[in-house]
Design goal:
Radius of gyration: 25 Å
Structural class: alpha/beta
CATH superfamily of the largest domain: P-loop containing nucleotide triphosphate hydrolases
Helix content: 25-40%
Strand content: 15-25%
Number of helices: 14
CATH class of the largest domain: Alpha Beta
CATH topology of the largest domain: Rossmann fold
CATH architecture of the largest domain: 3-Layer(aba) Sandwich
Largest sheet: 9 strands, mixed
Distance between the termini: 66 Å
Number of strands: 18
């Protein structure tokens, strides 16, 4: 097997000594091969190299393991390269060790606790679910190198995947353009990164015209997806349902003015239960107009801020107490209307019935036309910027809503709805339930928000 890099891969590898590399390219552009070349070359240069190579799924690790082993065999020929399948290791003749692992959840991440690596390679990161993306980034805590050596990171990603928005925020937000080094997060002391763009035309080893035909057939009538995969266009929606949510603009404290209140909740057991307190402005207040909506506060049963996909399993009684305390903080009446998805509890009662027994005024949400609910939120966010109608604003107290709202991916086959595989959608669902109720019925409790303005 020839492991000579093509011109695009050569351009990528020129940065490997000075900067972390984010290969953000279209389908079929030979990104994975360049990542593996970087990894194996580091092992050939330094016997103390300990790279960690990640894929989201276990089946995905098998393919990249085979490619790494083949490359290492060619690089170290005639010396023998060994494997330890039980540990997921490729052991080079000079002592360097490549570890290949999946990183889909907390359990797959936990096996890296206490281990030391010198470089991190995350392949196909654009398709990682948000939880896997977070755990992959957390593996940076395992990068420990001696003085004078730089810990290296190299990722690859296609646009329009589950982590499209996360990749844009993490790797493209502060970059001046393709192939131009930049500081991570835009800070003066951040690590150096470079974004390497590519398309299928950068891969001379495939029939480019034939592959483009296959991509167009695969995407059907989804022109945005075809443009993303073929032209490496990251400006398309890229799976982000609420791409028009701008925290720098939409995050505002509600004014101390009369409001009509509504609770929107989404029930979960293994996943978090969430509740959003919404308020609709009744009078003019500074720059805000009657009808403007505010997500004022939130409560949830997430295990912790680092894992927003897992709930504590709190019963309805405990969740109701959390909601009651939130109402008290904002001097809202216990009779503030609440809508919550109507699942059945352990005793056969619906969740709404159990929450009502705890003193909340709970009913079923308007669930028809889920796509319309998502568009309603987008419309309110858009109007907040244009002034064409009532807008939606989010208080800084809604931390998890602010975190998860821009992460909500569109379904790959039904882009008008959120991907059901997204495990942190519960804050968005609570917002949608409450907003639809206020928008369509006008019901809600009266009161006054006291606080920042």
């Amino acid at each position: 097997m020839s492991i000579a890099p093509n011109p695009y891969q050569q351009a990528v590898l020129r940065f490997r000594a000075q900067a972390n590399i984010a290969q953000l390219g279209g389908r079929g552009s030979s990104k994975t091969f360049a990542l593996c070349l970087d990894c194996v070359t580091r092992c050939a240069e330094d016997p103390n190299e300990r790279p960690l190579v990640l894929r989201e799924s276990w089946s995905g690790t098998q393919q990249i393991t085979d490619l790494l082993f083949t490359m290492a065999t060619a690089a170290f020929h005639p010396q023998k390269v060994r494997t330890n399948s039980a540990m997921g290791e490729i052991i080079c003749p000079n002592g360097a060790v490549i570890t290949v692992s999946n990183v889909g959840d907390a359990a797959s991440y936990a096996k890296h606790q206490g281990k030391t690596y010198t470089s991190l390679f995350a392949d196909e990161m654009g398709n990682y679910p948000p939880t896997a993306f977070a755990f992959a980034m957390r593996c940076r805590s395992n990068l420990r190198v001696p003085v004078g050596k730089r810990a290296h990171i190299h990722i690859t990603a296609n646009p329009h995947g589950a982590a499209h928005t996360l990749c844009v925020q993490k790797f493209m937000k502060h970059a001046p353009g393709w192939w131009k080094p930049y500081r991570e997060d835009g800070t003066e002391d951040g690590e150096w990164w470079v974004n390497a763009g590519s398309t299928l035309k950068d891969n001379p080893h495939i029939d480019q015209r034939a592959y483009e035909v296959q991509l167009r057939k695969a995407t059907g009538h989804n022109d945005a997806l075809a443009k993303a995969w073929i032209e490496n266009d990251w400006s398309v929606m890229g799976g982000s349902m609420f791409d028009n949510f701008d925290p720098a603009f939409h995050v505002r404290f509600p004014p101390p003015a009369r409001m009509r209140y509504q609770l929107g909740a989404d029930w979960g057991t293994a996943s978090p239960s969430t509740c959003i307190l919404l308020g609709r402005l009744l009078d003019h207040a500074g720059p805000f107009v009657p009808g403007d909506m505010f997500a004022i506060d939130e409560v949830d049963t997430a295990v912790n801020a680092d894992d927003l996909s897992t709930g504590t399993g709190a019963p309805p009684s405990e969740f109701a107490e959390m909601v009651m305390r939130m109402l008290q903080r904002h001097r809202c009446k216990k009779s503030t209307p609440m809508v919550c998805d109507d699942m059945r509890g352990l005793m056969g009662d619906t969740v709404c019935a159990q929450l009502s027994k705890e003193g909340l005024w709970c009913s079923k949400p308007i669930k028809t036309d889920r796509a319309g609910g998502f568009q309603l939120v987008r419309t309110y966010l858009h109007h907040a910027k244009t002034g064409a109608g009532p807008g939606l604003w989010v208080s800084p107290d809604c931390r998890n809503l602010i975190t998860t709202l821009p992460m909500c991916p569109r379904d790959p086959l039904r882009p008008e709805v959120i991907d059901t595989r997204f495990t942190m959608r519960h804050w968005a669902d609570g917002l949608i339930y409450g907003l639809k109720e206020m928008h369509h019925t006008g019901r809600g409790g009266n009161g006054r928000t006291v606080g920042h303005y």
